[in-house]
Design brief:
Helix content is 56%, strand content 13%. The protein is built from nine helices and five strands; from the N terminus they run βαβαααβαβαααβα. The structure holds adenosine-5'-diphosphate, shikimate-3-phosphate and magnesium ion (MG). Magnesium ion binds at residues 18-19, 35, 37, 79. Substrate binds at residues 37, 61, 82, 138.
Length: 174
């Protein structure tokens, strides 16, 4: 990634565990934690569904890119939203400023975790088949954007967090 590792970014599909692992990783590594969705909610004073409904998805995507462009803290953990890695500009920023970890979870697990959550507008507005198609079409982009892929199936949040910390320490300073 060139120069010293600064930030750790968690990427992957909705429900793969980015927010949950990021929070735990920040405790374990004693680094500040930013969940991009929460930061955008805080900055706008609106929920994610409200932003989608009132301004549309493209506006939300622009807020995500603006967050990455304007963010200045160097050593920290950032949990992205599931759509962040889909933009080339975002991928470039993430790879230039940190280590990118893809949390790779199987779709049936993901669906079990997200299908009832009203806070994810894309899930709220789509069928299971549509979400599965989106999962498949995004998969290779996550994989290519990441320095490391972490398979999460059959692993607890604690195990995943420990493995993420191990990889981050191993690659520190590269
Ligand atoms: N490996 C795991 N084992 C058990 N529960 C998990 C695991 N990964 C995620 N979860 C749970 O699934 C839900 C969705 O995870 P979350 O971190 O919000 O995903 P994301 O931020 O990637 O959308 C949360 O309740 C989280 O605790
Ligand atoms: O995958 C996506 O397009 C989205 C994922 C969500 O974050 P999580 O991945 O944390 O659920 C949130 O940013 C928004 O609902 C859109
Ligand atoms: Mg999240």
């Amino acid at each position: 990634m060139g120069g010293r590792m600064k930030r750790i970014y968690l990427i992957g599909f909705m429900g793969c565990g980015k927010s949950a692992v990021g929070r735990r990783l920040s405790f374990l590594m004693k680094l500040p934690f930013y969940d991009m969705d929460k930061e955008i909610v805080r900055q706008t004073g609106m929920t994610i569904p409200e932003i989608f409904d009132q301004y549309g998805e493209e506006h939300f995507r622009d807020l995500e890119t603006a967050f990455l462009e304007n963010f200045s803290n160097s050593r920290c953990i950032i949990s992205t939203g599931g759509g962040v890695a889909m933009r080339e500009r975002n991928r470039k920023i993430m790879r230039e400023t940190g280590l990118v970890l893809f949390l790779d979870a199987p779709f049936r697990e993901i669906w079990r975790r997200i299908h009832k959550d009203p806070n994810r507008p894309i899930v709220r507005d789509s069928t299971r088949e549509e979400i599965e198609a989106m999962f498949k079409s995004r998969y290779r982009t996550y994989k290519a954007a990441a320095h490391i892929t972490i398979r999460t199936e059959f692993r607890t949040l604690r195990q995943i967090t420990q493995y993420a910390a191990f990889q981050a320490n191993r690659l520190k300073g590269e």
